[in-house]
Amino acid sequence: MDKNRNYVDLHTHTRLSDGKLSSLELIHEAMKNGIKVLAITDHNRMLSKEKLEELEKMVEDKLILLRATEVSCKYKLMEREVELHIVALFPDKSVDLHPFLSFLEKNIGCDRRSYIEDILEKLRSLNIDIGSYQDLQKKYGYIGRPQVALELALQGYVSTADEAMDKYIGNHGQKLAFVENKNKNNFCMLEEVLEQIYKAKGLAVL
């Protein structure tokens, strides 16, 4: 890391999705590593304007924070639909993002709980019990496959979260407890997501 350079990171996650840190912990880690512009891009969710302003006061002028998210969507490829993720950045703080947030809630909203509970049940069928959905929610807040993988490692069923994904719950490898995510049927098409991002004067990154 060159201390004479200013770095930018426009794709990061907190423990609200794929990350292991809170938003404040992530910001402190970014500043320690010379990041001057940071976008927190949790999946299909975004820091509220109030939360962003609260964090900005804490870091003062040491770091520029951008409102952002990573949006799941579908794309028609040949005869099938594939899942894509689009990073949406909103550098213009004067724009009212309520219409975009409503779009996220309406079109990306999904029943994550039943999906995770199906994974936990499949793990139990393999004599692997890492607790209930409520247990994990109490510990992690947001629950997705990364949190399940981490818990499998913490409880000693695998050595690492990566091994948990490869052996049990990832859509690759042995797939011993893999569950198809039916929520992706709710995702909007890529074209509609792009339209909504541009309406909010945002920038889209594939």
Number of strands: 5
Q: Given the helix and strand composition, which structural class is it?
A: alpha/beta
Distance between the termini: 26 Å
Characterize the largest beta sheet: strand count, sense, and whether it forms a barrel: 5 strands, mixed
What does this structure look like?
It contains eight helices and five strands. With 206 residues, it is α/β, with parallel strands linked by helices. α6 packs across α7 (161-169). It is globular and about 50 Å long. The mean pLDDT is 90.
Summarize the structure.
The chain is an alpha/beta fold. It contains eight helices and five strands.
Secondary-structure map:
Blueprint (H helix, E strand, L loop, with lengths): L6 E6 L10 H10 L2 E6 L8 H11 L4 E14 L2 E11 L7 H11 L3 H13 L8 H8 L4 H10 L6 H9 L20 H10 L3 E3 L1
Parallel strand pairs: 1-2, 2-3
Antiparallel strand pairs: 3-4, 4-5
Helix pairs in contact: 6-7
Please tag this protein with its features:
5 strands; alpha/beta; 206 residues; single chain; globular; five-stranded mixed sheet; 40% helix
